[in-house]
Design goal:
This protein is α+β, with helices and mostly antiparallel strands. It has helices spanning 11-20, 27-35, 78-90, 102-107, and strands at residues 2-5, 39-43, 49-57, 62-69, 93-97, 111-113, 118-122.
Length: 124
C-alpha cells in the first residue's frame, strides 16, 4: 500500500470512496482540499484508491474532515496508516466523530473527550 497526496484529476476517485462511506462532505470542499494538498489517498500497488483522508489546516493543527476506507478493505490498518501519514505531514491532528468510532481513533493515537459527540487530538 502507498499513501500519497491526491492530485487535481482525482476528485472523482476521492468522492467515490467518501460517498461509499455515506460521508456528507461537499465536492467543492474536497476539491479545495486537494488543491491545498490536504487530501491523502491510500492506494494498492496497482494504483486503486483504497481510502481517503480529507484534512483542513487550522492555526495550530489539521482537522480531519473525513476519512473513509472502501468497505471490503476495512479492518486492514489502512485508515490507521492514513492517520499516521497525516500526522507525519501535518503534525497535530484533531477530529470530531460519533462515539462508535472512538475505538478506531483511540488506537490511532488520539486522546478522546466527550460522549454524545467525541473530540480527539493526536500529537506528533
Amino acid at each position: 500500500m502507498i499513501v500519497e497526496p491526491a492530485q487535481a484529476g482525482e476528485l472523482a476517485a476521492v468522492m467515490n470512496v467518501l460517498d461509499g462511506a455515506d460521508l456528507a462532505i461537499e465536492v467543492g470542499h474536497v476539491e479545495q482540499a486537494i488543491g491545498a494538498e490536504q487530501v491523502l489517498l491510500a492506494r494498492s500497488r496497482a494504483g486503486t484508491v483504497l481510502a481517503a483522508l480529507v484534512g483542513c489546516a487550522r492555526e495550530d493543527s489539521t482537522r480531519i474532515e473525513a476519512i473513509a476506507v472502501r468497505p471490503g478493505r476495512r479492518g486492514q490498518g489502512i485508515g490507521t496508516a492514513l492517520i499516521r501519514a497525516a500526522g507525519e505531514r501535518w503534525g497535530t491532528l484533531t477530529a470530531e466523530f460519533d462515539p462508535p468510532l472512538a475505538p478506531f481513533y483511540r488506537q490511532a493515537g488520539f486522546e478522546i473527550e466527550g460522549t454524545d459527540r467525541c473530540h480527539g487530538r493526536r500529537w506528533p
